[in-house]
Write a structure and sequence with these properties.
Structural class: alpha+beta
Helix content: over 70%
Order of helices and strands: HHHEEEEEHHHHHHHHH
Number of strands: 5
Strand content: 5-15%
Length: 428
């Protein structure tokens, strides 16, 4: 037992003797490890700083490259816009040159063969041809400015085509020397085969006064003065005369019927006087009173008194026959007045339609560019309708007045007929 204790003590002593050496070794190893760690950290920090610097340089270089790219793109865009402007200006210049060349060729008035030859030519050649053509025109100008007089087809203001003398003052102006609507300044129609009278009505011309419209503006001015009666009738052409005839015939009937109705006026007091005598039994006096009169009322009462003493059917037939005759006379001619009042505007409408048809024929010949000339022709076509209305309105008013007057006379005659029948039946 004691031996074991000695062995344990010896082992403890051995362990106690080796502990300082182990601590020293561990401390040395720790120091070396910390030194290596510090060196590694320093290396890592150095490499990290270098990497950051290189990354910053790369970012700066990328930003500079991006800015350079943006500047390059802007410069390219500006260059493209400038190129587009220059190209557009060049195209406009080419178009202007072509237009000038075309105008020069048109002004030269080259013939069809020369224009076909210049169809695919260069502008320089076209300009040379135009200059040559203008030179030929200038050489021929004195002869073309000479005054010429000859008969040509002219479309008048009323749309009719007539051959009238035309005075040509070179190419500056042509003047029609016809009558009425075929006298005035001229313009070529759209078909080029005839002339068209335009502008205001010109006065009668002689050898001392020749109107010249150099600017070409007077030809498109509307006439400011009013038409005279003769011009108004001439503008209505053939259709206005039946309208005037219908109006005059209707006016004559109105005068005749008005005079007849006013002269043969039936007075209600006359009927009352005859009725009073019959009611007192004074038939001879009543017969003498109606025999002296010549109005429709007297004739109806005379027929009733003449049949006195006859059966009722005979008296009614006599009075009714006299009443029918007199009422027919009162309304005679009124139907004709109404017919004439209705026919007049229809004739005017027919004339207007015919004039519009002629105007459309003129439009087809000359085109619709001259609005003032067309409006003048349309206004002339509407004159027939105007005349028809002027004739119909007074005839309609007169017909209404005469119809009302005849109706009042008819009512008075019917009242007289009934009164005579009743009085003759009661009288002895």
């Amino acid at each position: 037992m004691r031996c074991w204790w000695l062995l344990l003590v010896a082992m403890m002593a051995g362990l106690s003797a080796g502990e300082p050496d182990l601590l020293v070794g561990a401390h040395e190893a720790r120091r070396q490890a910390e030194s290596q760690l510090a060196e590694a950290r320093a290396t890592i920090a150095t490499e990290h700083a270098a990497l950051l610097q290189r990354l910053q340089s790369a970012v700066t270089a990328a930003s500079a490259a991006r800015e350079g790219q943006i500047r390059a793109e802007r410069a390219a865009s500006v260059a493209a816009e400038e190129l587009a402007r220059q190209q557009l200006a060049a195209d406009r210049g080419v178009v202007q040159v072509r237009q000038l060349v075309d105008r020069a060729v048109v002004a030269a008035r080259l013939d069809a063969q020369a224009q076909r030859d210049l169809a695919g030519a260069t502008p320089e050649r076209r300009i040379e041809a135009a200059i040559s053509g203008l030179g030929r025109r200038l050489d021929a100008l004195p002869g073309r400015l000479a005054r010429r007089l000859g008969d040509e087809s002219v479309i008048g203001r009323d749309g009719r085509v007539l051959s009238v003398p035309v005075l040509r003052l070179g190419e500056a102006r042509a003047i029609a020397l016809g009558e009425g609507g075929h006298r005035g300044l001229l313009e070529r129609a759209a078909d080029g085969s005839s002339w068209l009278v335009v502008g205001p009505q010109l006065p009668v011309m002689n050898t001392s006064t020749v109107p010249l419209d150099v600017t070409g503006t007077a030809a498109h001015q509307s006439a400011a003065r009013q038409r005279s009666l003769g011009e108004w009738l001439a503008a209505g052409r053939a259709f206005i005369w039946p309208i005037i005839a219908a109006f005059l015939l209707g006016l004559g009937l109105v005068v005749v019927r008005a005079v007849s109705l006013l002269r043969n006026r039936s007075d209600a007091s006359h009927l009352a006087a005859v009725s009073d005598q019959l009611s007192r039994g004074e038939r001879p006096a009543a017969i003498a009173l109606v025999a002296a009169g010549a109005t429709p009322l007297d004739r109806v009462m005379r027929a009733g008194l003449a049949a006195a003493g006859q059966p009722r059917e005979v008296r009614e037939a006599a009075v009714e026959q006299a009443l029918l005759v007199e009422t027919g006379q009162l309304s005679r001619g009124l139907t004709m007045i109404a017919v004439l009042a209705g026919v007049a505007p229809l004739l005017g409408l027919l004339g207007t339609v015919t004039g519009m048809i002629d105007m459309f024929s003129v439009i087809a010949a000359q085109g619709g560019g001259n609005a003032k000339g067309l409006s003048g022709g349309i206004s002339e076509a509407l004159i027939c309708t105007q005349a028809g209305m002027l004739a119909a309105i007074p005839l309609l008013l007169a017909h209404a007045w005469l119809s009302r007057l005849a109706e009042r006379r008819s009512h008075l005659l019917e009242e007289a007929a009934c009164g005579i029948l009743g009085l003759t039946e009661r009288s002895p």
